UniProtKB/TrEMBL annotation, chain A:
Keywords: Membrane, Transmembrane, Transmembrane helix. Subunit of the oligosaccharyl transferase (OST) complex that catalyzes the initial transfer of a defined glycan (Glc(3)Man(9)GlcNAc(2) in eukaryotes) from the lipid carrier dolichol-pyrophosphate to an asparagine residue within an Asn-X-Ser/Thr consensus motif in nascent polypeptide chains, the first step in protein N-glycosylation. N-glycosylation occurs cotranslationally and the complex associates with the Sec61 complex at the channel-forming translocon complex that mediates protein translocation across the endoplasmic reticulum (ER). All subunits are required for a maximal enzyme activity. It comes from Penicillium angulare. It is a multi-pass membrane protein. This is Dolichyl-diphosphooligosaccharide-protein glycosyltransferase subunit OST5. InterPro entries: TMEM258/Ost5. GO terms for cellular component: oligosaccharyltransferase complex. The keyword Membrane applies. The chain crosses the membrane at residues 25-44, 51-76. Component of the oligosaccharyltransferase (OST) complex.
TrEMBL record, chain B:
It comes from the Eukaryota. It is a single-pass type I membrane protein. Belongs to the OST1 family. It comes from Penicillium angulare. PANTHER family: DOLICHYL-DIPHOSPHOOLIGOSACCHARIDE--PROTEIN GLYCOSYLTRANSFERASE SUBUNIT 1, RIBOPHORIN I. InterPro entries: Ribophorin_I (IPR007676). Residues 1-19 form the signal peptide. It is found in: Endoplasmic reticulum membrane. This is Dolichyl-diphosphooligosaccharide--protein glycosyltransferase subunit 1. Subunit of the oligosaccharyl transferase (OST) complex that catalyzes the initial transfer of a defined glycan (Glc(3)Man(9)GlcNAc(2) in eukaryotes) from the lipid carrier dolichol-pyrophosphate to an asparagine residue within an Asn-X-Ser/Thr consensus motif in nascent polypeptide chains, the first step in protein N-glycosylation. N-glycosylation occurs cotranslationally and the complex associates with the Sec61 complex at the channel-forming translocon complex that mediates protein translocation across the endoplasmic reticulum (ER). All subunits are required for a maximal enzyme activity. One of its GO terms (cellular component) is oligosaccharyltransferase complex. Pfam families: Ribophorin_I.
Length: 77, 498
């Protein structure tokens, strides 16, 4: 199967990004804000339970928020 | 359809290094001569001089004069010309939809300095059978400005030298050469004597025909030098090097393109110092000029965020017409100064596109298929020649099992055969990368703007874990800090009796 046939066969499934370009900044920045706030709340109550209730959500929000924000700034990673 | 695998790579850098394909030239004996198994029954060479490079199409009826079937047809070029031959291809003229024949190249023959393209016919030609071959190629840097220096507003003339007898490895029975000039202003041309009866060349408007010649008794390789000089008051735009980067971002849904040019005008140089006043006058009148005044750069519909930067910084004399999303966008660049003969200019342009137009998820597994223009470049009436072209496709981090293919149609796509496209895989580290992004690099020497419509298809595998590498790395970083903060905070450092 030539690669052109692979391309034609995939005509029904164009790539769709998880977040559209127009919403990258809104979503990315919101996630970063959530990350900052939850990290701050963790700082007020540094317990093992807080790592699960605040630390993990904060880290996830930072991970995805930073990726979307850098894309929104024009550095497409 | 040509299909080949560039490489299969895992996530490990050492495997990338081993993945490059290296093109090779076939070694030949010191006194090599192609076996005389074919005869050119009839040969017509069309030489097009309308652009700033030479485009030749040779249609030749080939007959097998050997007793056994033959499949290798040799096309000779002197070594110095061979390096400047671009987009060489050969097809069966009666079955162009079957695509081009495989072409290999030989090393220079030490005794005579000739290098050969070897056209491998798909099916061996039976004895006494005939085949019509259509051979086409461009020859770069083969036009010389005469006079070499001119006044700023003078007309420019180019000369082109060739042999009236088409260089061939085989005996040719009849042959002729048709030259197409850009205008009827051809002040000098060689008139042959004794090669045929009647006037030679025959002139009709801007088309000059040398021949037909009866050359059944002429030894292959015999030369009859011809020189023509014609008006070409346009720049001879030569790009010494073009680096084109295509960056695929799944997270951003973006295809970023950047092209870096090292450009030179190989036309007549200025006899006197540049006059700004004369230049302003001639620009106002839109008079023909041998300088590059403006570069028009069509972009695909939906292109955005275009920029034009040179060694100094942003060049404000550019205009971007974005189109309406369906029609092509246009980038009109005015270089910082007009580029006269012998002058250089280097710059870069870039823009973004939505990835969804270029990338599809393949029907099986985690495979993606990307279809992008091989080369875009300016669209100029006088043509653009590229001495060296380097295309880098920067795929997302973690992409593996990379394969590529150039699209073939019923007509020439301006690209050379696969043996002359050097491919390699490497890793390119930039923002937020941990392993580096998989990069497919394709290098081609001697290319012309005829390849503007050529398409490239790349497939690669990219799993969910590959995609999540960036956010998970950041996640890991912050969670480690928070755990460390909790752990340090939980250490009892009070002074008390234990």
């Amino acid at each position: 199967m030539s690669l052109n046939q692979v391309w034609e066969a995939a005509s029904a499934t164009p790539f769709q990004p998880i977040v559209a370009k127009d919403s990258q900044f809104t979503i990315g920045f919101s996630l970063l804000v959530i990350a900052v706030i939850t990290t701050g709340l963790f700082g007020l109550n540094r317990s093992l339970a807080s790592i699960f209730t605040l630390g993990i959500p904060a880290s996830l929000a930072l991970g995805f928020g930073a990726v979307f924000t850098i894309c929104a700034a024009g550095v497409y990673v | 359809m040509r299909f080949f695998t560039a490489a299969v790579l895992g996530l490990f850098v050492p495997s990338l290094a081993a993945a490059s394909s290296i093109t090779s030239q076939q070694a030949v004996p010191a006194d090599f001569k192609p076996p005389q198994v074919f005869k050119n029954t009839n040969l017509v060479r069309n030489t097009n001089l309308e652009k700033s490079y030479v485009r030749e199409t040779i249609n030749v009826v080939v007959e097998n004069v050997d007793k056994s079937p033959q499949s290798d047809y040799y096309v000779p070029f002197p070594t110095d010309v061979f390096d400047r031959v671009g987009g060489f291809e050969a097809r069966d003229k009666k079955a162009t939809d079957k695509g081009r024949f495989e072409v290999a190249v030989t090393e220079p023959v030490p005794s005579n300095g000739i290098q050969y393209f070897i056209v491998h016919l798909d099916e061996p030609l039976a004895p006494k059978a005939q085949l019509t071959l259509g051979i086409s190629y461009s020859v770069l840097a083969s036009l010389t400005p005469r006079p070499a220096t001119i006044q700023q507003n003078d007309k420019q003339y180019l000369t082109y030298s060739f042999s009236a007898y088409v260089p061939s490895a085989y005996q040719t029975v009849t042959q002729k050469t048709k030259l197409k000039f850009p205008s009827t202003d051809v002040p000098d041309f060689t008139e042959t004597d004794g090669l045929k009866s009647g006037a030679d060349p025959e002139r009709k408007g801007a088309t000059y025909t040398y021949g037909p010649y009866e050359t059944a008794k002429v030894a292959p390789g015999t030369e009859k030098p011809i020189t023509v000089r014609y008006q070409f008051t346009n720049p001879v735009i030569t790009v010494n090097l073009l680096e084109r980067d295509l960056e695929v971002s799944h997270w951003g849904g973006n295809l970023a393109t950047e092209e870096r040019y090292w450009l030179r005008n190989n036309g007549s140089e200025l006899e006197n110092q540049f006059s700004r006043v004369d230049w302003t006058f001639s620009s106002y009148q839109k008079a023909p000029t041998s300088a590059v005044r403006e570069i028009t750069y069509p972009l695909l519909p939906g292109s955005s965020d275009a920029y034009f930067i040179d060694d100094i910084g942003n060049v404000s004399t550019s205009r971007y017409r974005p189109g309406n999303g369906k029609t092509a966008a246009n980038l009109e660049l005015k270089p910082r100064y007009p580029i006269f003969g012998g002058w250089n200019y280097s710059f870069k342009v870039g823009w973004n596109n939505d990835l969804s137009r270029f990338l599809r998820k393949a029907t099986s597994g985690d495979s993606y298929v990307l279809k992008v223009p091989f080369i875009q470049g300016p669209k100029m009436n006088e043509g653009v020649q590229y001495e060296r072209f380097v295309l880098r496709i920067v795929l997302p981090e973690g992409a593996h099992n990379v394969r590529y293919e150039t699209l073939e149609g019923a007509n020439s796509n301006g690209l050379p055969g696969k043996s002359q496209i050097h491919s390699s895989l490497s890793s390119f580290k930039t923002y937020m990368d941990t392993l580096g992004r998989t990069t497919l690099t394709l290098e081609v020497d001697s290319l012309t703007d005829e390849a503007r419509d050529a398409q490239l298809i790349v497939t690669y595998d990219h799993s969910l874990m590959d995609a999540l590498r960036k956010p998970l790395t950041l996640f890991g970083g912050l969670i480690s800090v928070l755990v460390a903060v909790w752990f340090v905070g939980s250490i009892d450092t009070s002074i008390k009796k234990r």
